[in-house]
Amino acid sequence: MHVDKAKKRIAKQVKKGFKGYPQITLEYFGHSADCATEVAIRFTLEEGAQVQEERFAGETDVRENEVIQSALVKIIERADASSVIEIEGVSML
Question: Where do the domains of the chain lie, and which CATH numbers do they carry?
Fold first, then answer.
């Protein structure tokens, strides 16, 4: 899947807003606001449930990494997430 297609699919899910559980939360991390070198994807099955987290890292901006963005889409699809939340911007490491 091309990176632009993956990013559009993720953005479409994020745009829907909170629709209940299961929920996926995406948060990008980096050493500067311009380059996210790591992404955390968090899965919450139901309110109050333990959060499961997986992280992906790259040498360059992971938001432009086709493999990582495609993996995020697959995780969202397989989790059958009702809500996908994306934390704005890049959190500092």
Answer: 3-92 (3.30.720)
